[in-house]
Amino acid sequence: MAVERTLSIIKPDATRRNLTGKINARFEDAGLRIVAQKRLQLTREQAEKFYAVHAERSFFNDLCTFMTSGPVVVQVLEGEGAVLRNREIMGATNPANAAPGTIRADFAESVEANSVHGSDSPENAANEIAFFFSQIEILS
Ligand code: DAT
Ligand code: MG
């Protein structure tokens, strides 16, 4: 499997509970490398643009309100099959369905406040990384 990069976001419910380090340890312990990282306050406009694919969903407005409710940590993770690997480490969207030992099973508060975002395909990863980072901010 090829070395890939994926976009990860530690969401406001997790930064609020001071879980950034514990979540980063999950990535590093699984062999993913954090090759870029910054703490941001998303604007409403950024949240709506980032989640535009969900614009017609009933939860879109609440999702954007939640994502702007506090700081997030955006990061680029790199490693073998990083996109799928990160989805495995995160667990299912709804923490009630997330496998034991995954970030969402261990830390998420609800389907909305589910602690982390991860890109779902290499194509989306490239677009989502470019949404937050310039090439010179990413250091393998
Ligand atoms: P994922 O974040 O696992 O890729 P997604 O892309 O389907 O999941 O949805 C993006 C986010 O939207 C998700 O992390 C939390 C929120 N969300 C999804 N389904 C929801 C629902 N049924 N009710 C409330 N929020 C939801
Ligand atoms: Mg998604």
UniProtKB/TrEMBL annotation:
Superkingdom in the source lineage: Bacteria
Reaction it catalyzes: a 2'-deoxyribonucleoside 5'-diphosphate + ATP = a 2'-deoxyribonucleoside 5'-triphosphate + ADP; a ribonucleoside 5'-diphosphate + ATP = a ribonucleoside 5'-triphosphate + ADP
SUPFAM superfamilies with a match to the protein in the record: Nucleoside diphosphate kinase, NDK
A Gene Ontology cellular-component term: cytoplasm
The enzyme's E.C. designation: 2.7.4.6
Compartment(s) of residence: Cytoplasm
Quaternary structure annotation from Swiss-Prot or TrEMBL: Homotetramer.
The protein, known as: Nucleoside diphosphate kinase
